[in-house]
Amino acid sequence: MATGHTDPQRRERILAATLDLIAEEGVAGVSHRKIATRAKVPLGSMTYHFTGIDELLREAFTGYADHIVAVFERHLSGAGTADQAREAVTDLIHTLSEGPRRDLVLTQELYTLAARHTAYRQLCQRWMRRSRDLLEHHFDPATARQLDALIEGLTLHRSLDDAPPDRALTREAVARITAAP
Q1: Position 7 pLDDT exceeds 80
Q2: What is the second-level CATH architecture of the domain 52-178?
Q3: Which residues cross the membrane (predicted)?
Q4: More confident residue, 89 or 1
C-alpha cells in the first residue's frame, strides 16, 4: 500500500470507513483507531487529514448527504410534466426505502447528531434545502416542503415495516400533497 502523499485515495478511504463504521456501530462506536484499521491506513493519517473526530464526522456526513441529493437528482431530473414528477417522487420513496439498510442507519445517526449539535443541524438544513430546490423545479415551494417531509417519513416507515405499503399507496399520498387546492 502506498504511503504519505503517494496515496491520493487515503482521505476518501478514511471517509468511507467512517460511514461504514457508523452504519455498523453507530456514532458512539467510532474512534480514530477503529477507522484507521478499517481504512487500512496508519493511525497518524487520521490527524494528518482531519483536525479531530468531529471534523471527520461532519465531512463523512456531508459526503453522505451529497450522495442522497444525487439520488434525488437522478430521479427528478428526467421529469418533464407534473405527472412524471409525481411518479419520480413515488419511485424515489421506494428506492430509498428499499435501498441498503446502511442508508437508513446513516440518516438516523445524522438526525440524532443534528438534534444535539448545531453544526449537524446546519448540515441537515443544507441537505433539506438542496432536496427542496430539486423538488421546486416541479412543484411550488410549499408543496416541495411537504413532499420533502413525505419522502423522509414514508421512507422511514416503509424501511421499518415488515409489510410496507405498496406503490399505489405511495402514489396516492404524493398525489394528495401535489393536488391543486
Answers
A1: no
A2: Orthogonal Bundle (1.10)
A3: none
A4: 89
Q: In a 10 Å sphere around its CB, with 0-12 CB exposed, 13-18 middle and 19+ buried, how is residue 87 labelled? A: middle
Q: C-alpha grid cell for residue 86?
A: 409525481
> 134, 127 in Cβ contact below 8 A?
no
Q: Which pLDDT score is estimated for 5?
A: 54
Measure the CA–CA gap between 150 and 158, rounded to whole angstroms.
Answer: 12
In this structure, how many other beta carbons lie within 10 angstroms of the beta carbon of residue 60? 24
Cell of 32: 480514530
What fold, for 1-50?
Answer: Arc Repressor Mutant, subunit A (1.10.10)
pTM of the model: 0.89
Sketch the domain layout of the chain as residue ranges.
1-50, 52-178
